[in-house]
Amino acid sequence: MVKHIVFWKLKDEANGMSKLENAAAIKQKLEDLNGKIEGCIKLEVGCDFLHSAESADVVLYSEFENKEALDF
Length: 72
Description:
By secondary structure, this protein is of the alpha+beta class. Helices cover 25% and strands 36% of the residues.
């Protein structure tokens, strides 16, 4: 099994939406991928609730059957 973690820091505003709106949209789109990626066992998305300077705005945690599935 391969675990894959990605952190994003978003701009305060992009595409006419606030950081919070964009974070929610990204979260929804990533969660919509659940069950649609071959070899992906688990996919979780979280949004920042601390709002500290060190926090990432969006985090993706995923688990894949193997490296080949992650590379796909």
